[in-house]
Amino acid sequence: MRTPLNVGILGYGFASATFHAPIIAAVPGLRLHAIGSTRPSQVSTDWPDALIFDSPEALIARDDIDCLVIATPNQTHHPLAAKALDAGKHVVVDKPFTLTCDEARDLITRAERQHRVLSVFHNRRWDGDFMSVRAVLQQGELGRIVHFESHFDRFRPVVPQRWRDSGEPGSGLWYDLGPHLLDQALQLFGLPQSIGLDLASQRDNSQADDWFHAVLHYQALRVVLHASALTASIAPRFTVHGTRGSLQKFGLDTQEAALKAGLRPPNPDWGVDPNPLLLTLADTEQQLSTHQRNVLPGDYTRFYSGFCDAVRLGLPNLVPAQEALQVMALIELGLQSATEGRRLALPSTGQLPVAD
């Protein structure tokens, strides 16, 4: 049996405590070896066997660390990931990858120079509902897709005191949930022809955007990405319309709620979603009937299993940094669209977008 890769995590806020640490600990071939945090008592309570460091530099300098996870505030992703790569570490960056495309390209260059694996934690590729919707689309059951709508709505009327809602660079819902929804759309449909984004700060005392509505244009197809912090009556998570029928899915993937409750993979019910897909399909005589279909189990451990295999065996990186760069390109172009109040086009070459 091979010696596990030693993994260090920079930062121990919500993302690390809820997602990274328990998922890493569940993956054979990885060892959660060290955590850098300003809250050592919480780390020692949760992970008593992990080494604790009070500065990122001290953890980055460790020779016994193979891989580093950057799970710090968004505006620190680039400088910390750059230091980690320059120190010869394989790196996972929590989403969003960076704040800008220039920062993302710089990290890709550093990783290539050091011959290190660089990945971004787009874990919602392994949401059970997303995987199930993708399977339906791949099978062609809905015909040609003309409308795809992805909502991530919540009811959180009180603005919490945290950096994600502070108004500092990289805060707000577009940087928080936008990367998830954009990455899923890109996995299904590739780069759009253009994007239009509307942003708003709707809660009392809000300092950052807490509502967004983006429309991606693909010839006849329209992809709507929407998130809100003031939605008490939750819309479907997914709505899809095609030339042969429609699909709806209510409710979020169950893994985040399970992790928040202190549960950890693996267990027999991990990722099981009780809310089925609802498919309304037309027969040969255009008569409609609605069917339920079970959702595939979600499994976030697949991200870190793939990362481990990429580092250890040289297998393909499941979330290559170039794909995360495409997400950042749409984040940037979306912000420009919201500022200018108009839809902006990507170049016909399919490279990084520019305004038309």
Give the helix/strand layout.
Elements: E1 5-10, H1 14-25, E2 30-36, H2 40-46, E3 51-53, H3 56-60, E4 67-70, H4 77-86, E5 90-94, H5 101-114, E6 118-121, H6 128-139, E7 145-153, H7 173-176, H8 178-189, E8 194-200, E9 211-218, E10 221-228, E11 238-242, E12 245-249, H9 255-260, E13 277-282, E14 288-293, H10 301-313, H11 321-340, E15 344-345
Parallel strand pairs: 1-2, 1-4, 2-3, 4-5, 5-6, 7-10
Antiparallel strand pairs: 7-11, 8-9, 8-15, 9-10, 11-12, 12-13, 13-14
Helix pairs in contact: 4-5, 5-11, 8-11
Describe what this molecule looks like in 3D.
The radius of gyration is 21 Å and the shape is globular. The chain folds into two domains: 5-123 and 302-318, Rossmann fold, CATH 3.40.50.720; 124-298 and 331-345, Dihydrodipicolinate Reductase, domain 2. The mean pLDDT is 95. The strands form two sheets. Strands 14-13-12-11-7-10-9-8-15 form a nine-stranded mixed β-sheet. Strands 3-2-1-4-5-6 form a six-stranded parallel β-sheet, sandwiched between helices. The chain contains eleven helices and 15 strands. It is an alpha/beta fold.
